[in-house]
């Protein structure tokens, strides 16, 4: 509850700080519009008591004053209409501006977050913050907020007008009003309870359907359709039950409120009529007529207020999730050493510019590196090794042994707990992350491409690269054959999921993308999965070309890679258990020997 | 379309019928209230007649209680009907998907089927509830109010008849103008989602290449585009309220002037005059309801179309009547088989002939795109041949009961899919009645027993929570064990040991040989070593079979095979997969 209040205040602050002037104008417009509405109801009393009744008694009715009064009313009415135009237009635009600015803030923030965040959060969940949560928030700003305030003013002004017209009838209205509030609260409490249950049921059904449809082919192969249908029915029935209560209570609100209005209408007519007959001085006909009209503009806003209150509470949950993302701590980067280019060569520039620049060579050194993943407790223990510029380091070991984790330390996707990693003798913690990563490239097993042309994907890391650079990178990656066969060659647009490309072709794209950046250090993850022999040979040739003249870390799956490595690190359970060249390790008859037998 | 959807109403029919009836009743009473109230004013208050007030008052009170009951009842029943209808619809849709063949499934993306089962049906539910309640209330309130207005005063009636088209035009303009914009907004959302999704999946690439600024720029453009179009749409929609207010106020002014004239001319009484104000409000609000209904229904129309598309898709593989329920043996025969995926004229298999004896071990090898999976998919009838016949146990596969055929032809698919739940529950997909002894036996054969035993909860290990502890190769072996539990006559492994190391794979093959001598075994693989001992090796090329023979024969006759073998010997391909 307190949390919700905090979120609300923060949202309000955001609104007010950016749109103070507009909000003040809107508020004034809302008040004017509500006043015009009440004036209309009050006018009915004057119309009947001051104009129509006297006119019926007059022998020579003069309609002049009535025409004048109608003219004044027209002015009041149309000012009210203009006011409504003003605030509804302003709120529509403000809602969109806020929506855009929140989305931008979220995305800018997201780009700075550490990988840990992406590991720990479900993608669907993050995506829904950009769409569902922002949408609900915008609804709140463009509709719920103004309607809530309009309704609030309408009720207040209507109440004031009623008090002026007749305190007695006001008392009746208040009694009905109190009953309505009780009913509304009861209904909304019930429907809210079932709406929450419904949300949970939808979630469960969704997860079930998602899993089953993804495994639909297995269901068919096992003729398991009947069993799955039975399980589905359980989720389906639960959802029906929650939905019928949730909607049942929620939709009952409006007819009940409407009919409470009718009841009030009837009570005013009957009791007001009785009162008018017994004490004509207390109540005029015009007052009753005006009251009848007011009773309408009294009961509708109450239903609206309660409905908008619900919407506001719901939107606060979404706003909470948005703020949570905005409050995530960004990837920290205290690095001050930067990468500078002088002619064709790259140098490390230390923060203290009086110190000499260090030429970038690609010497990497791990010393006593320890690391633990927060959730799984897996990690690295005391990793120490050195890679001189241009050397090939092969990492071998079983899945989950820590090969990828080791490379993740180097580009600082994760930060080590203790120990030190140096690049050309400089502690990588002191290097600005952008620059550190610019001095490394990585080719992962599952290749991620972005929606856009083949050309833009190849020069992703160097957006200003010219065509000849793109083509030579593609040549290095042995990708020219397949690119030339594409309908628009380098201008062929691929979608992010790259369905049009085979996994081998995607890997060639990743190699070309790394080649164009041409960094002194490379991290390669050799592919194992089902690519056919010819494509595999091409991919390997590309990888070999990429490794030439660079310090390379290879997560190795091929014997030829291991043969040619300057240093093989056998990793098991996050530790280096054996190290050396192929021949040296074979002689040990240890872990490497076992793995080698598997390979052969 | 409507008929297909409505056939899912079934047991919720009476709630569906009673709702509009109650709505009509409620509207009728609501419209009568101002009429009787006018009587109180004109025959009770003005002449000072207390008994009229009391009599009419009691009737009015009773009527408003009845109207309240009807209104609340309609809401309640409409919710029951809509929730029930959507349940039936989900049921029908899900069952329909279960009857689909692989071909049908290829046609719909999984994510799109999920959306249809959830979001789309929720939209339809909302629309349905609206249709039986508000879509009945709006026209009946409008109609009754106009009738009553005419009864009270023909002149006032004509005033309303004139005002209605003005307001209707305005509302229509708003809906018409904003609809295409909203469609544009949805497209904008697709784009925005794509950028976010690509950045979530590819965050490592973005960070590696330091392209955060460029990605942020991409996102800004999408977000800005949405904000622009959406603002435009919202500003059009925002005209709704002032328009209503304008029409109501103008009507009030004209009505005041007209009423005063009529009352003075003794053609109208004060009470009737007051009731006309109420009718004008009812008429205008019901028109606003129309606008809302119209825009809501157009949203759900797309959903309805998407659901009906699935419901009306005919499953293209169904068993015959009097289908055979017993498979004689594990022999397989392809007799002049040609196959192409529907909608393509590219023959995946062309005039394929093949005979496999029961109990044989068959290896299938070839480059990607050479229809290896297609070939074996025809055996459990996952697809139907375009021409020719596939026979299992001497019978055309189309003559079998589908369940019989697929129980006897166990196929381990390329992607290892296990379901949430324990290892035991997953294995039991193969045989619900299996004892632990039987489970352990198949685990042993699939070389999965050791690692399952090593898990803290053994067979009761929950796969969902221990995704980290079970590697890809181990999951593959679980899917093999699951298939073995069916005790099939034919076992097909489609690259099912790709993530398993060679030694383990060799042990699996050995277990098959000793424990399952009578089961016909087909293995698709990339490794020659896996199929070197096979009775038959099938080399696939584009469009069909290139060669069939034993390892020794192929080494003599097939150059591609020789080269592959030598290349793999040199590289000893694969290995360290786990």
Structure description:
- The complex is a heterodimer of chains A (600) and B (578).
- With 600 residues, chain A is of the alpha/beta class.
- Chain A has 3 domains: 180 residues, ABC transporter transmembrane region fold (Up-down Bundle); 116 residues; 179 residues, Rossmann fold.
- Chain A contains 18 helices and 15 strands.
- Chain A has a 6-stranded mixed sheet, with helices on both faces. In chain A, strands 5-4-7-8 form a 4-stranded antiparallel sheet, covered by helices on one side.
- The radius of gyration of chain A is 36 Å and the shape is elongated.
- With 578 residues, chain B is α/β, with parallel strands linked by helices.
- Chain B has 3 domains: 169 residues, ABC transporter transmembrane region fold; 114 residues; 240 residues, Rossmann fold (3-Layer(aba) Sandwich).
- Chain B has a 6-stranded mixed sheet.
- Chain B has 20 helices and 10 strands.
- In chain B, helix 2 runs parallel beside helix 6, helix 5 packs antiparallel against helix 11 and helix 15 packs across helix 17.
- At the A-B interface, helix 1, helix 2, helix 4, helix 5 and helix 6 of A face helix 2, helix 3, helix 5, helix 7 and helix 8 of B.
What is the overall shape of chain A?
elongated
Strand content of chain B: 5-15%
Give the total of beta strands of chain B. Answer: 10
Residue fraction in strands of chain A: 5-15%
Greatest interface = A-B, 158 and 157 residues
Terminal CA distance of chain A: 64 Å
User: Helical stretch count of chain B?
Assistant: 20
Q: Helical region count of chain A?
A: 18
Which structural class is indicated by helix and strand composition of chain B? alpha/beta
The residue-averaged pLDDT of chain A reads 80
Low-confidence stretches of chain B: 573-578
Strand order of the largest sheet of chain A: 9-12-13-6-14-15
Q: H/E element string of chain B?
A: HHHHHHHHHHHEEEHEEHEHHHHEHEEEHH
Give the C-level CATH assignment of the largest domain in chain B.
Alpha Beta
CATH architecture of the largest domain in chain B: 3-Layer(aba) Sandwich
CATH architecture label of the largest domain in chain A: Up-down Bundle
Quaternary state reads heterodimer
Helix content of chain A: 55-70%
Total count of strands of chain A: 15
Sequence stretches where pLDDT stays below 50 over 5 or more residues of chain A: none
Quick one: biggest sheet of chain A?
6 strands, mixed
